[in-house]
């Protein structure tokens, strides 16, 4: 238990420093794999229900098997795992970014409801870091893509309204939101893990890769330098 806590603190510290480092420099790392790995680590950390959902359930007195059943995320509140897989890389980044921006608002409103301020801080800091990494990854994709276009916020990314009918309803909505949030981060982690295995093979965003694969054998290097985006802008 203690070792686990220490490990998490270290991890959040490292992730926080990575974020601060990037933010302070005001520029983005051009290391595609490095950014993916940071996003993965952050998603892995944020999917952990012991950070927010579990303590929330205990503190709000929802810790019975009956009530826990009601704490499932509401369908449509967050993009489903299947929906995430359907998206192009570009759309996925924007959907996650927009969804997390809204989640951050909601978490700020719920701040008083978490017993451990430190865990709440870890989460919000890593959401910001995650968004920053998304920003950097979008820039890399844009640099290596001729077809990238800005996209509208996708449906399903909007948070459910908070009717606040009564206190109990409010608690339930809080835990449903947290369930969905942790689940979304787990799904996002899986998608990024898959990206890491198949570097830039997406249909829309890898003209370079596509050109290399289709090109006649033996001229890859030449084509790469001559026909495509200048090397400096490409993720390495
Ligand atoms: C991510 O969302 C924030 C608002 O939460 C916005 O300011 C920023 O431009 C978005 N970045 C990208 C890459 O979409």
TrEMBL record:
Keywords: Cytokine, Secreted, Signal. Coiled coil: none annotated. GO terms for molecular function: cytokine activity; growth factor activity; oncostatin-M receptor binding. Gene3D superfamilies: 1.20.1250.10. SMART domains: LIF_OSM (SM00080). It comes from the Eukaryota. GO terms for biological process: immune response; negative regulation of hormone secretion; oncostatin-M-mediated signaling pathway; positive regulation of cell population proliferation; positive regulation of inflammatory response; positive regulation of interleukin-17 production; positive regulation of MAPK cascade; positive regulation of phosphatidylinositol 3-kinase/protein kinase B signal transduction. Its main location: secreted. Residues 1-24 form the signal peptide. PANTHER family: ONCOSTATIN M, ONCOSTATIN-M. This is Oncostatin M. It comes from Equus caballus (Horse). The gene is OSM.
